């Protein structure tokens, strides 16, 4: 999909991409306080990577985000999420009842939500990137 | 007429218009772009309903990434729709039956914004009044999504994961 792209477009995207990545992290870790969370953050992060792929081509993008590693992250986020559930069960609570993780239930809830949102973000971002890579490779 | 009513009316009119145009379009490129606009309009509607988390997701996923992924799919399948040679009577009957079932279903729904609606009677008050104490984070949507309904969200992530597996099975190249 990536042909020769004009210098102005390329440099503008180079300016935008770091801001988008940073915004994704903000949405990820600020979801407790404002709108946002893992789903939105994952999609925004993936959008930045996809923009980079569109502008600089697949080879260059895959040097930074190799498909083989992204593929591992697809499963890793989901496993992280499920692992939190298993850990709460081992510690004597119900599946995904974060209150048992730490001594103070509120802190434990905070920790649990933080970790599972991270799992959501990782899987969503990796899935979106890997689907785009698959489409991109197939269309050549 | 309040400013909110005007905004809602214009958003709904534009939504209906884009839905009608979507039906009549043959060029898939235009269909994809217009469905992105449709998503963006619904995101605006969600904002005016104070559902900012939903609006955020709709704008990011529906208007943003879905459009890009569908454009990628169009790069593979070509941008002209193949014209169907089937008759139009059977689809019309199916749609008429489905639509009347859906409309019949809405007759039982509570009036929009009704405070005594079932959805406001059971868990919603607990989420709103006690999540601050039980979970301790200000965004109730995150409390519900990640803690009270953590099991459902795990299922959602599994669905997203399955989507990737499906695409890789269909389009992915082995051993890379």
What can you tell me about this protein's structure?
The complex is a heterodimer of chains A (140) and B (176). By secondary structure, chain A is mainly α. Chain A has helices spanning 7-29, 38-56, 58-64, 67-90, 105-138. Chain A contains five helices and no strands. Chain A starts with 6 loop residues before the first helix and ends with a helix. Chain B has 176 residues and is mostly helical. Chain B has two domains: 1-82, Four Helix Bundle (Hemerythrin (Met), subunit A), CATH 1.20.120; 115-176, no CATH class. Chain B is 74% helix and 0% strand. The longest helix of chain B has 26 residues, at 52-77. At the A-B interface, helix 2, helix 4 and helix 5 of A face helix 3, helix 6 and helix 7 of B.
Set down the secondary structure blueprint.
The complex is a heterodimer of chains A (140) and B (176).
Chain A (H helix, E strand, L loop, with lengths): L6 H23 L8 H19 L1 H7 L2 H24 L14 H34 L2
Chain B lengths: L2 H22 L3 H21 L3 H26 L11 H18 L16 H12 L5 H9 L1 H22 L5
Helix pairs in contact in B: 1-2, 2-3, 6-7
What is this entry, summarized?
Chain A has 140 residues and is an all-alpha fold. Chain A has helices at residues 7-29, 38-56, 58-64, 67-90, 105-138. Chain B has helices at residues 3-24, 28-48, 52-77, 89-106, 123-134, 140-148, 150-171.
């Amino acid at each position: 999909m990536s042909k020769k792209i004009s210098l102005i477009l390329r440099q503008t995207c180079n300016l935008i991409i770091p801001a988008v990545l940073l915004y994704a992290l903000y949405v990820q870790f600020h979801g407790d306080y404002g709108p946002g969370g893992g789903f939105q953050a994952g999609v925004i992060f993936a959008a930045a990577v996809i923009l980079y792929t569109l502008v600089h081509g697949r080879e260059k993008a895959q040097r930074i985000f190799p498909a083989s590693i992204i593929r591992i992250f697809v499963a890793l986020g989901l496993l992280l999420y499920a692992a939190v559930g298993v850990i709460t069960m081992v510690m004597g609570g119900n599946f995904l009842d974060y209150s048992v993780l730490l001594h103070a239930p509120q802190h434990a809830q905070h920790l649990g939500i933080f970790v599972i949102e991270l799992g959501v973000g990782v899987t969503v971002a990796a899935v979106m990137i890997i689907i785009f890579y698959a489409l991109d490779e197939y269309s050549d | 007429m309040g400013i909110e009513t005007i905004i809602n009316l214009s958003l709904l009119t534009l939504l209906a218009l884009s839905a009608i145009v979507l039906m009549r379009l043959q060029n898939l490129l235009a269909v994809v772009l217009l469905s992105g606009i449709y998503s963006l309009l619904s995101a605006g509607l969600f904002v005016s309903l104070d559902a900012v988390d939903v609006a955020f997701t709709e704008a990011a996923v529906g208007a943003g990434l879905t459009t890009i992924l569908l454009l990628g799919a169009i790069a593979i399948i070509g941008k002209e729709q193949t014209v169907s040679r089937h008759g139009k009577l059977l689809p019309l009957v199916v749609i008429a039956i489905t639509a009347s079932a859906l409309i019949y279903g809405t007759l039982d729904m509570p009036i929009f914004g009704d405070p005594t609606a079932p959805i406001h009677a059971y868990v919603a008050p607990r989420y709103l009044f006690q999540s601050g104490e039980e979970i301790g984070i200000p965004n109730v949507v995150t409390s519900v999504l990640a803690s009270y309904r953590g099991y459902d969200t795990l299922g959602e992530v599994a669905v997203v994961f399955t989507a990737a597996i499906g695409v890789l099975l269909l389009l992915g190249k082995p051993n890379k």
